[in-house]
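Practice problem: predict the structure.
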Amino acid sequence: MSSDEHNAEQSEIDPWQGDVRLVEFFGEAWPAIEGFHRLLTDEGVLRGLVGPREVGRLWERHLLNSAAVVPFLPETGRIIDIGSGAGLPGIVVAAMRPHAEVILLEPMERRIDWLTEVVDELGLSNAVVTRGRAEELHGELRADAVTARAVAPLDRLYRWALPLLGKGGVLVALKGARAQDEVEAGARWAKKLGGAAAEVISASTIEGAEQTNVVRVVREAERGVR
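Answer:
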């Protein structure tokens, strides 16, 4: 199948495939993002990292959804993506924040292999694939920002993520329709770990794409649970 035929087939599956606004939106990150889409569509499905039914909504539900977190992240410094999995949002963040060090933190070996191959294939020299769990790296690894997508409820995520942040660092988590409920349920843990009151932000990317709930928490003080 030629690349044109492949694109035409994908256009029938995914309404966003071939939309020129994607190129404009992603800008200089576009070659890496397009390559990541191709890898997810092919190898990602074969290796069980992406369900076959997700191929037709990769752009809106996964890549644009991941990109919604980027405006809330620093342009430089260190960003840790907890539970990177297939690379969402970590690979997207690395492509769109080329001057930041992006650590893709993932405990599962087969996903580490995948992330390493993706980083090499896309030439993302600012991305560092690291095997481990966030809670194992408390006191060893420090970041300016932490991201997470579909990893855990906020009460648990706070315990994993906030100790990785210095004072002024920010946790930016992609959440679903129940984001506010999670914020309320986890407020006690955020406060105990030095987090400020959480903001729930409805973030958008391209007109017509589904908006995304982003939960943003700044760590105001470095303290553990007493």
